[in-house]
Amino acid sequence: MENQVFVMDHPLIQHKLTFLRSKDTGSKEFRELVSEIGMLMCYEATRDLPLEDARIETPIGPATTKVIAGRKMAFIPILRAGLGMVDGVLALVPAAKVGHIGLYRDPKTLKPVEYYSKLPSDITERDVIVLDPMLATGGSAIDAIGIIKRSHPKSIKFMCIIAAPEGMKAFTEAHPDVPVYCAAMDKRLNDHGYIVPGLGDAGDRIFGTL
């Protein structure tokens, strides 16, 4: 797990995370914070993108500079909470395509149930980052990655804001080849499968359906 899980302790991320957790933060500000944190995390998660030389003309003269080396990317949010991170990551990589995977958690079994899947048609040519604010039991993320793997993308990363140790353990055991980026590793899950201290239900707080 050591070389697979990256917990981002950047001061801006941690500062925004404090307000994201607060029960006094309303839906509008919560949505903005999720998007902003997603953008900051994407900056770190794409740090290993390869570069190549490019020749350009500045107003002063010719220059050899760097561009990303032909990589095509796709962001795939897990519905519905993952949608909250899309605008932030697209602000950094506007040419990326966006797929969607719909999973909901059965309230009795806490297991994920798939109800929708739409991936880019050229996913085999793309590096994928899967988005979901919370990694709780890990069930939804594990299933989503399994669905995506069947389409054989070039690479897969998973990006969440808050994770529980139980979910992280389950995820890394199920997909030891998928790097995970998160902003915080919390204490545990409660009896209802919520992360403690967490931030409540991310989907409800994003869309105001509390």
UniProtKB/TrEMBL annotation:
Catalytic activity: UMP + diphosphate = 5-phospho-alpha-D-ribose 1-diphosphate + uracil
Function, in words: Catalyzes the conversion of uracil and 5-phospho-alpha-D-ribose 1-diphosphate (PRPP) to UMP and diphosphate.
Species of origin: [Clostridium] leptum DSM 753
Gene Ontology cellular component terms for the protein in this record: cytoplasm
EC number, UniProt record: 2.4.2.9
Cofactor binding comment, as recorded: Binds 1 Mg(2+) ion per subunit. The magnesium is bound as Mg-PRPP.
Domain (Phosphoribosyltransferase) ranges: 7-209
Recorded name of the encoding gene: upp
Signal peptide: none
Keyword presence, ATP-binding: no
Residues binding 5-phospho-alpha-D-ribose 1-diphosphate: 80, 105, 132-140, 201
GO molecular function: GTP binding; magnesium ion binding; uracil phosphoribosyltransferase activity
Stored InterPro entries: PRTase-like, PRTase_dom, Upp_B, UPRT, UPRTase/APRTase
Entry superkingdom: Bacteria
Keyword Magnesium: yes
Protein's UniProt name: Uracil phosphoribosyltransferase
GO biological process: UMP salvage; uracil salvage
Pathway: Pyrimidine metabolism; UMP biosynthesis via salvage pathway; UMP from uracil: step 1/1
